[in-house]
Write a structure and sequence with these properties.
Blueprint: E1 3-6, E2 17-20, H1 27-33, E3 52-57, H2 67-73, E4 83-85, E5 96-99
Parallel strand pairs: 1-5
Antiparallel strand pairs: 1-2, 3-4, 3-5
């Protein structure tokens, strides 16, 4: 089972984290299943950028981004070449390391 290493984030995982998830799981699902409550305003339907992550290691092991995801990423805060929407980034067999950006473009957060 691949491991996801998450860099520390002041709101979602202040200490950082290391979790495992089965191949075929999206990064967003894996985070949520492990009580790292990353924003996902569109309920993982690839309609917003609130679940944006930067993949620091293992980027090439993930499925390829489709056009809809790439179009949305253009609007993400802090876009980098290794940016993905975590709801669309599907784990393979390789470990990945991610960073959750400090900000998102979502101005009205749920449950806060």
């Amino acid at each position: 089972m691949p491991t996801i290493k998450i860099f520390p984030h002041p709101e979602y995982c202040p200490e950082g984290a290391e979790i495992t998830a089965p191949a075929g799981t999206s990064i967003c699902e894996a985070l949520l299943d492990n009580h790292i409550n990353i924003e996902h305003a569109c309920e993982m339907s690839c309609a917003c950028t609130t679940c944006h992550v930067v993949v620091r290691q293992g980027f090439n092991s993930l499925n390829e981004a489709e056009e809809g995801e790439e179009d949305l990423l253009d609007r993400a805060w802090g876009l980098e070449p290794q940016s993905r929407l975590s709801c669309q980034a599907i784990l393979a067999q390789e470990d990945v390391t991610i960073e959750i950006p400090k900000y998102s473009i979502n101005h009205a957060k749920e449950n806060h």
